Amino acid sequence: MPDLVMVLSRPEIMDDVAFHPCVHRRKWESERKIGFVPPDGQFKLASFHVAMETSPRALPLYVRAVSSRSEQMYTVEIVLEPGQCNGRPVEQVCVKVPLPQQAYNIGVQCKTGTHTVSNARSPQVEWSVKSVRAGDQGLRLVIQYLMRSSNSSNTPPAEQGVLAAFIDFEVTGYSASSIKVDALRLLRESYKLFKGVRYATKAGSYQVRF
């Protein structure tokens, strides 16, 4: 079985590291290198956290969100602002805004991308933007709606408006953590190893609270 050793740049900034069972943990603990015997098929080698203050990179996408109320009209405004991704676009941007169950007469305004409104039991507005590039401006979504009065005295006040927006996106060829693969070595095997690394950043659980 091939035995591989992966050398990463800046492994000291990695926190809460969780490895696949194929990883030799002693090598990581002693040398901060990842030694492993790859299993068959696709697998996740490791997961980890990097604190913002330890990474020189900025967020690929910034989201500003404001919620307000004027008499019976509720308004939610969301603005997307591109970060710095070494010139690479932020793609497949999707903003999901769950609305209160009592929301009705929902209106949406946006000049960029497309939107859908779900009027199911849990109303939701979904805004999709194919690509956000450096210098893009005017990426704005405005939601306005009215609220039916609740017959339940147990309805918390927080449910009378939007609480959060959930954002998905991806950036190919970019590592938001600034961690990269410096080397990948094959041990105790004579055949030639063809190596390649592709970087991608995905949103994960990115949410903005109002």
Oligomerization status of the protein chains = single chain
Number of helices: 1
Spatial extent as radius of gyration: 23 Å
User: Quick check: average pLDDT?
Assistant: 89
Describe it.
With about 210 residues, the chain is mainly beta. The protein is built from one helix and 16 strands. The strands form four sheets. Strands 8, 10, 11, 13, 15 and 16 form a six-stranded antiparallel sheet that branches. A four-stranded antiparallel sheet has the order 3-4-1-14. A four-stranded antiparallel sheet has the order 6-7-12-9, with no helix packed on it. A hairpin with a 5-residue loop joins strand 10 and strand 11. The protein is elongated and about 75 Å long. The mean pLDDT is about 90.
In short:
The chain has 1 helix and 16 strands.
Compile the SSE list and pairings.
Blueprint: E1 3-8, E2 15-19, E3 23-24, H1 25-31, E4 34-36, E5 46-49, E6 61-70, E7 73-82, E8 90-98, E9 103-110, E10 114-118, E11 124-132, E12 140-147, E13 164-172, E14 181-187, E15 200-202, E16 206-209
Antiparallel strand pairs: 1-4, 1-14, 2-5, 3-4, 6-7, 7-12, 8-11, 8-13, 9-12, 10-11, 13-15, 13-16
Brief descriptors of the model:
210 residues, 6-stranded antiparallel β-sheet, 49% strand
